[in-house]
Specification:
This protein has 32 helices and 20 strands. The protein is α/β, with parallel strands linked by helices. A seven-stranded mixed sheet has the order 13-12-18-14-17-16-15. A five-stranded mixed sheet has the order 5-6-7-8-9. The chain has a four-stranded antiparallel sheet with strand order 1-2-3-4, with no helix packed on it. The two termini are 58 Å apart. Helices cover 49% and strands 11% of the residues.
Length: 791
């Protein structure tokens, strides 16, 4: 691919990314440094226009050009033209009144040090420049609509320039706050190229400087940047970053900066341990840009942005664009839906293990890294499936910089329920200040400081996992706190992007009042499954031959349609990778997949830990008891973790069942303490929580549900048919436990349950309760059909 460069300067003309050279207009070539090659967009006016390629140096956040408005953006653009043109040829700045379509003209003398003669201009002729400024309201149009308006406006201006006013012009430059896109056939860059060819005989050079170019010019023009900084960067913290100030002098800024660094450090690892994996993986090495599907039931006109997006899709499809370049709202990368399109409120709905929390983790990490660790942000960008409307270099200029706060609603509910009555109502802003910032970085921020941050700075609020707050009273309190927070943010007129997430089964439309754009996570398609498994194996299996053996076992398993049906979520892909890494074959059923995975993890822990080797049976039963009791308690809204004293009682109870009065090689108290101490760090699938790590929880909800099902299936006093009826009647919160439970059952029991559902009569029409119960029973079994054995 060859990109046209801005035509100033002796070293500017064309860049070949494959040969890593710059070709001048005169045909000579200049080599590029390694750090600057492979960049698909132009490196702009290094010497002449005070602009530099940020990929060759520290990356800077995006300037909020849209906040300037039309008049101030035009004035700023003219100010950027002044330094190297005033006194070097005749520069004429025009007022914003009717001026024949020109903001500024410049006659560049042939003696100018960066003068490069155009081939279509006779030698010795000064070049006549026309600079045009076009501002578009991205908030009204969106960046797709603004790009279309830009092309339309460019056509009109070229017609006026060449036909109506007939202004002599060798080089025409349009300066805009819009980001140019690179999609084939319909992208703004291709459309500009078409216009350049059309007008080449009348205007030899036509260029467009977009938001990325203007940002680079601002980076290298401190005077202009400082003069417009209140509009370019609305928040105090972002201003401090752009001014390169020492934020440690301001305690609030210092605490926020420390929080952002903590966020980068804390979220930089994929939560592999939560799936029982060994240690954390760098998210920048294994993240896959999952595919989302728009919820089409919500109505196309739920927001102006959504209506525009629908219209854009219809337009592109009518234009006869090849299928590979079409926009699909049924298969949209998460980055496109949640980063690039910048909808004010979006919601992710997905079942267990699909990766909704991983997506919100990525968003939070990326925004934090852009502010305090650009190198990490740059690595994360490499994991994205960039929309066809964009080039990779456009990401920084397209995605607005935001201060991110990720709230796990389960933890917020626990914190909220633990407040004393005099400290109620327990605002969400207070939780962000005390639990996310102060407790992690020794800060002293208040709820009012959080609202000040949200008022002054573009902010991302992630509310993750509403389904994990199942208790009615808990959920009502949580929603009341969220409502109060959102209302206050609206009153502050802050620029807030809200990202919400939940399992579909645990969502009762509580967030509909915020009019979210709702997305569901699609099954992991084969290409993304392959990308994830290859990345995972590269990180986990360093030996090439062992890695190939693991790939062979995986490919052998994937030939089975039953296994291929399981390869649909990130969690189950991780389970499969761990199994093949341990030189085992992949099971063909979901329950057996989890069961095999649990066996693999216990085997691994048994090999390296004497405690697990000696007491494996007791520890398995402890997991089962903990899973059931915790799941039951979470449903009731009593507590969200197993408190230290309760967990000690569970250990003693299991010990009594398995060992009784049997003597041990070490005192009982010492053994129990050892188990409790191990769980406080990490004991197979259990992990310590809280300030002292003394409370116990499962590292991931799916395994809590798996072990709860194991407890119900293995309990000596359990009547299996009554257990099934109980699970069906308890509703959505137990649905995943039900699926595991059915998978555990013997084929004869499964057949009995199916016959019961098919042969039962609905009874008289007046028996409404019986009819409802039967419908609920049948629906629950239908959802679990894949768990039934094939006999």
């Amino acid at each position: 691919m060859v990109n046209d460069f801005r035509p100033f300067g002796a070293a500017m003309a064309k860049l070949s990314t494959s040969t890593k050279t710059i070709e001048r207009d005169d045909g000579s070539k200049v080599g590029l440094s390694a750090s600057c090659t492979g960049v698909p967009s132009a490196k702009l006016l290094d010497s002449f226009s005070d602009k530099s390629d940020p990929r060759c140096g520290p990356a800077m956040p995006r300037y909020s050009l849209e906040r300037l408005g039309s008049g101030r953006f035009e004035a700023m653009a003219q100010a950027l033209l002044e330094p190297r043109r005033r006194g070097a040829g005749e520069l004429i700045q025009f007022s914003p009144t009717a001026d024949g379509g020109r903001e500024a003209t410049w006659e560049q003398p042939t003696s100018h040090p960066e003068f490069v003669r155009l081939s279509d201009v006779s030698e010795g002729t000064p070049h006549k420049w026309v600079f045009q400024v076009k501002y578009h309201d991205l908030g009204v149009r969106g960046w797709r609509g603004a790009a279309d308006a830009l092309i339309s406006g460019l056509k009109d201006e070229l017609i006026k320039l060449t036909q109506k006013h007939k202004v002599p012009c060798h080089r025409y430059v349009l300066i805009t706050n819009v980001v140019l896109s690179g999609v084939r056939h319909v992208g703004t860059r291709d459309k500009i190229s078409d216009l350049k060819q059309k007008y080449k005989k009348r205007i030899p050079s036509i260029e467009v400087w977009d938001a990325t170019d203007v940002s680079r010019m601002l980076d290298n023009n401190e005077a202009v940047r400082t003069a417009y900084l209140d509009d370019l960067a609305p928040g105090d913290f972002l201003k401090a970053v752009l001014k390169r100030l020492d934020v440690s002098r301001d305690r609030k800024r210092s605490a926020l900066a420390a929080y952002l660094r903590h966020t980068v450090e804390y979220l930089a690892g994929a939560r592999a341990q939560e799936a029982g994996d060994e240690g954390e993986l760098p998210l920048a090495k294994v993240y896959v840009d999952l595919s989302l599907r728009l919820d089409r039931t919500q109505g196309e006109a739920s927001s102006p942005e959504m209506l525009e997006l629908w219209n854009e899709v219809a337009h592109v499809r009518k234009a006869g664009v090849p299928s590979e370049d079409r926009i699909s709202l049924s298969d949209t990368p998460a980055s496109s839906a949640l980063l690039f399109d910048n909808f004010p409120t979006s919601m992710i709905l997905a079942g267990p293990g699909y990766g909704k929390s991983t997506v919100t983790q990525f968003l939070t990490l990326y925004h934090a890294a852009r502010l305090v660790d650009p190198a990490v942000a740059s690595e994360l960008e490499k994991r994205l499936r960039i929309p066809t409307e964009m080039n990779s270099a456009d990401i920084g200029s397209t995605v607005k910089v935001r201060v991110p706060f990720k709230v796990e609603l389960r933890r917020f509910a626990k914190w909220h329920s633990g407040l004393s009555p005099e400290k109620q109502p327990g605002h969400l802003a207070e939780y962000i200040a005390s639990q996310l910032i102060n407790s992690n970085v020794s800060g002293s921020l208040t709820a009012e400081d959080i609202f000040e941050i949200a008022h002054d700075n573009p902010t991302l609020i992630v509310l993750d996992g509403l389904d994990e707050v199942p208790g009615k009273d808990d959920r009502e309190r949580v929603m009341k706190a969220i409502d109060a927070f959102i209302l206050r943010c609206q009153a502050e007129e802050g620029d807030i992007q809200l990202i919400l997430s939940s399992r579909p089964q645990g969502y009762a439309n509580e967030f509909e009042k915020y009019i979210p754009i709702k997305w569901s996570v699609r099954d992991l398609e084969s290409a993304l499954f392959g990308e994830y498994t290859q990345s995972w194996l590269r990180q986990r299996v360093r030996d090439a031959s062992e890695r190939q053996d693991a790939v062979t076992r995986l490919e052998r398993g994937m030939k089975s349609p039953a296994v291929a049906r399981l390869a649909t979520t990130l969690l189950q892909a991780t389970v499969m990778m761990t199994i093949v890494k341990r030189k085992s074959e992949v099971p063909h059923e979901r329950y057996k997949l989890y069961h095999k995975y649990v066996d693999v993890i216990f085997e691994r822990e048994r090999e390296k830990w004497p405690l697990v080797s000696e007491y494996e049976d007791e520890l398995r039963r402890l997991h089962e008891l903990a899973g059931y009791e915790l799941h039951k308690a979470v449903e009731a809204g009593q507590y969200k973790i197993i408190e230290a004293s309760v967990f000690r009682g569970m250990v003693l109870r299991i010990w009594e069942q398995f060992r009784g009065a049997q003597p041990t090689s070490t005192p009982l108290t010492k053994t129990v303490d050892e188990i409790i101490g191990a769980a406080a760090n990490r004991l197979v699938f259990l992990s310590g929580k809280g300030e002292e790590q003394s409370d116990i929880d499962f590292v991931i909800q799916s395994f809590r549900e798996y072990f709860a099902a194991q407890y119900l299936a293995n309990h000596a006093d359990a009547d299996q048919s009554r257990v099934l009826d109980m699970l069906v009647g308890r509703g959505f919160f137990w649905s995943n436990v039900l699926q595991f439970y059915i998978g555990l059952a013997k084929p004869a029991e499964q057949i009995t349950w199916m016959h019961s559902a098919s042969q039962a009569s609905t009874g008289p029409a007046s028996d409404v309760n019986k009819t409802v119960s039967l419908v609920q029973y049948r629906r629950s079994l239908m959802q679990c059909l894949p768990e039934f054995s094939k006999v």
